Amino acid sequence: MQAEPKKSQAGNAEDARPPAESLIGREYEVEVGPVAHGGHCIARTEEGQVLFVRHTLPGERVIARVTEGEEGARFLRADAVTVLEPSKDRVEAPCPYAGPGRCGGCDWQHAKPGAQRRLKGEVIAEQLQRLAGLTPEEAGWDGTVMPAEGDKLPPGEVPSWRTRVQYAVDEDGNAGLRRHRSHEVEPIEHCMIAAEGVSELGIEQRDWSGMASIEAIAATGSQDRQVILAPKPGARLPIVELDKPVSVMRIGEKDGGTHRVHGRPFVRERADGRTYRVGSGGFWQVHPKAAETLMLAVMQGLTPRKGDTALDLYCGVGLFAGALADRVGDKGAVLGIESGKRAVEDARHNLAAFDRVRIEQGKVESVLPRTGITEADLIVLDPPRAGAGKQTVRHLSGLGARRIAYVACDPAALARDLGYFREGGYRVRTLRAFDLFPMTHHVECVAILEPAEKGA
């Protein structure tokens, strides 16, 4: 009989090592350093351990309480629970639910609006330099983050911009919002950043026992209002009586699909003079000015010509494809690619008047090579938060496009992909940044690229 091999001394020592001590709840007095991507700033303990601290601003001195992490961890997460030396950019958070351990929906309620935009600009600049090796000048960017029309408000005032709000429901049936990096629910009576069309439904005043979540949608291109209910397993759907007429959808317990209960299974949005049907759960920009703002930035950057061939990748319900089709005319052609089945149905409906527009369903990295397309004049891509990735960028770089418009909701993914485009022979002609998510750390960018030799 063969004896079991003996464990090495190293193995025994490793097995006997006690688990690292949790540092949750420990407090440190720290000097706060620069802003970082993710809605927090960087600080260090006296021992040199990195802290990602929320609810603070660069240059402040605070007491930071650890919310995640253990001894020996690469970094700790923390909240600033006491501000010893405040920044001149600090204001009293207008929202009563903002602050350590409370609602996780907003990151910068405690910062003046102009400071929020500067912080976002610093994050974009840092990501461009670190991940793409680009200075703002090399990216054709003046360093500013522009507010949306109507959002430039004095400190202490909050724009009501969020036209789609996902409410969670606590054990008592109260609607609320998730706490930061938590499944716990913060019950609320009113969300300050919710658009008027959402707030007027009165969702926070109802009992939602048996529901796991409620999504409220208020279209800006029409008076359409919709709620999407996700019941807990085995729960019955309530009779929905809200303060304004709404259509009601439900998430199926077995298939996870969205099913109509009553009313239209879509809302109608407007952009570029056209109405777009957006099905339940379909993507549309959340800020009421975002679709028009981004569409104009893309078209101004691309300058389409009659007869151009264009690609609209991750096309959703067809916002950019429709704008391109208008501008390239009957002699031009537009191909849109989108993975979501419902979004493809909506895009085909929305763009049915254009004979030279085709919408294909599937992942871009799979569908695009199958199309046999070897060249295009213009390309728009608006990928999900993770970005397009090296494989897709490499493919796009080989199509010889005169200009490429990259719409990005994540500066890190944008910077990585811009680096891949540079490897593929493209340079950034211009970059514009828009604050379409006030009070949060999110920011939208539009980069216009062209062949590097053109800009040499």
TrEMBL record:
GO terms for biological process: rRNA base methylation. Keywords: Methyltransferase, S-adenosyl-L-methionine, Transferase. Residues 21-82 form the TRAM domain. It holds the Pfam family TRAM. The keyword S-adenosyl-L-methionine applies. GO terms for molecular function: rRNA (uridine-C5-)-methyltransferase activity. Residues 14-24 have a biased composition (Basic and acidic residues). The keyword Nucleotidyltransferase does not apply. Residues 1-24 are annotated as: Disordered. Belongs to the class I-like SAM-binding methyltransferase superfamily. RNA M5U methyltransferase family. This is Class I SAM-dependent RNA methyltransferase. The lineage of its organism: Bacteria, Bacillati, Actinomycetota, Actinomycetes, Kitasatosporales.
